[in-house]
């Protein structure tokens, strides 16, 4: 990270203006702006995309088992013996080899690589959901703490006026020194709360800068997520079973291990390959020879078809099959484990959202009631029906209710985002539909069509699958899962 970049992020901690949240740009930032910037620049997400692009190459590497190999070799040498002529020789050759049938090894390897790619794509979806959830949490945390700082600032101002009023009334003998001390104590507590609110806002701003990539300014109200949320918990469960990244990744991992099990069993089958060689050779005596060196070459052409059948490997193949079988069984159990974990997460997120919504409604009513009560106590105190302590207590109850409402709004929004993540719907294409999103299929298609492809690959792959088990994972160019 450059020094200027680091300095910009550290400003979230060091600048008093940023701590107070007073500096605001001409136009407020929106949650969509924050998500877009994080989606395009977040290093965690960018690193996962790079890892996925590297994984796309595994399909290309697996397909090389169907492709011919061509090599060129050359050699030139000379020898000299005492009392004899110096003899020079040279050879050159071109060798071509083409696999014809691998007993299912190559086809199974391709299936496994494709399933690995799909597993990686689900992992990418999972990382994207984690990053976006972190962005949303950081965004609403900053807004919450900005509001808490505003409330703390207002509280300090109100208690300052009340303290001044108490001191003035004490001077004319309307109240006692005890009333003044009570006002002074509440004012000191308000100043301490103000300092704590400043510090907490700085912490939230630093967290925002870390995930989004820039310091927050004046943040606009977050948009509603209601259109993306299910109406019943059963809808949430169904969506999670169909689109939760962890569940789908476990399913693709099982397909990959099933393909590797087929490849292990294919080790018992024969392999067939064809090869051809074109060679040139020449030798000449440097002294007394009839011609110059390399002037007269002899040419040779040869071809062969090779069949290899494994007869005895000391138990290696059988052991490999048993190991692959157990790995596949473990992956089958992992699917159920992932499904249960997803349903548990959905259940927790749903109940958290229900509780947060109920809490939000209750806190809104509490703020309305405590505001009315505070105004009434303050007016009654002006005519001597209430004491200074009564006013301070009513004012404190109002501030506590306002803080509780701010926290409730934050918790409700975070719970909504958590439910979407558990369902597999917390994705950029839903949150920022107007922004072009990253498509991992494009890179997969590009590398699959890269240099090295030969037109008879599909025929050889079909031949290699003859006699083997049917393994049909989703193709490497299939789109990622879509939550319904």
Question: How is the secondary structure organized here?
Answer:
Elements: H1 3-14, H2 16-20, H3 31-41, H4 43-63, E1 69-79, E2 87-101, H5 105-171, H6 177-212, H7 233-243, H8 245-266, E3 271-285, E4 298-308, H9 316-382, H10 388-423, H11 428-431, H12 440-448, H13 457-464
Antiparallel strand pairs: 1-2, 2-3, 3-4
Helix pairs in contact: 1-6, 3-5, 4-5, 4-12, 5-6, 5-8, 5-10, 7-9, 8-9, 9-10
Overview in brief:
By secondary structure, the protein is α+β, with helices and mostly antiparallel strands. The protein has helices spanning 3-14, 16-20, 31-41, 43-63, 105-171, 177-212, 233-243, 245-266, 316-382, 388-423, 428-431, 440-448, 457-464, and strands spanning 69-79, 87-101, 271-285, 298-308.
State the domain count.
Answer: 1
CATH superfamily: Outer membrane efflux proteins (OEP)
N-to-C CA distance:
40 Å
Percent of residues in beta strands: 5-15%
Number of helices: 13
- The strand count comes to 4
Shape: elongated
The arrangement of helices and strands along the chain is HHHHEEHHHHEEHHHHH
Question: Keywords, please?
Answer:
disordered N terminus; 64% helix; 484 residues; 13 helices; 4-stranded antiparallel β-sheet
């Amino acid at each position: 990270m450059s020094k200027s970049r680091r300095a910009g992020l550290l400003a979230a901690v060091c600048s008093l203006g940023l701590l107070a949240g007073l500096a605001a740009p001409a136009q407020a930032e929106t949650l969509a702006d924050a998500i877009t910037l994080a989606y395009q620049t977040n290093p965690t997400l960018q690193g996962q995309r790079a890892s996925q692009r590297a994984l796309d190459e595994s399909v290309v590497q697996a397909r090389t088992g169907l492709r011919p190999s061509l090599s060129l070799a050359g050699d030139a040498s000379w020898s000299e013996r005492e009392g004899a002529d110096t003899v020079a020789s040279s050879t050159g050759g071109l060798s071509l080899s083409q696999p014809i049938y691998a007993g299912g090894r190559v086809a199974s390897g391709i299936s496994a690589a494709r399933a690995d790619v799909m597993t990686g794509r689900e992992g990418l979806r999972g990382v994207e959901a984690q990053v976006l959830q972190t962005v949303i949490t950081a965004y609403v945390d900053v807004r919450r703490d900005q509001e808490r700082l505003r409330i703390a600032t207002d509280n300090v101002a109100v208690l300052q006026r009340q303290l001044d009023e108490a001191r003035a009334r004490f001077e004319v003998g309307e109240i006692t020194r005890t009333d003044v001390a009570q006002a002074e104590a509440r004012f000191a507590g308000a100043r301490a709360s103000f300092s704590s609110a400043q510090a907490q806002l700085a912490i939230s701003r630093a967290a925002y800068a870390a995930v989004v990539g820039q310091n927050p300014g004046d943040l606009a109200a977050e948009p509603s997520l209601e259109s993306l949320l299910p109406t019943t918990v059963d809808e949430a469960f169904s969506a999670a079973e169909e689109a939760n990244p962890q569940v789908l990744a476990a399913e693709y991992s099982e397909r990959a291990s099933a393909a590797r099990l087929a490849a292990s069993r294919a080790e018992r089958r024969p392999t067939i390959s064809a090869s051809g060689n074109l060679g040139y050779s020449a030798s000449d005596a440097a002294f007394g020879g009839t011609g110059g060196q390399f002037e007269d070459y002899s040419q040779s052409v040869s071809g062969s078809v090779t069949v290899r059948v494994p007869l005895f490997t000391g138990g290696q193949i059988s052991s490999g099959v048993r190991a692959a079988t157990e790995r596949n069984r473990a992956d089958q159990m992992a699917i159920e484990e992932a499904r249960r974990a997803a349903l548990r997460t959905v259940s927790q997120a749903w109940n958290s959202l229900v509780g947060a919504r109920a809490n939000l409604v209750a806190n809104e009513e509490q703020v309305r009631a405590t505001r009315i009560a505070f105004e009434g106590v303050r007016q009654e105190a002006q005519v001597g029906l209430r004491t200074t302590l009564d006013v301070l207590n009513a004012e404190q109850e109002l501030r506590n209710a306002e803080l509780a409402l701010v926290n409730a709004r934050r918790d409700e929004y975070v719970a909504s985002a958590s439910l979407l993540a558990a369902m597999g719907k917390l994705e950029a294409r839903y949150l920022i539909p107007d922004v072009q999103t990253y498509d991992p299929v494009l890179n997969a298609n590009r590398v699959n069509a890269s240099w090295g492809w030969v037109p008879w690959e599909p025929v050889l792959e079909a031949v290699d699958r003859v006699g083997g088990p049917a393994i049909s994972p989703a193709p490497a160019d299939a789109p990622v899962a879509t939550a319904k």
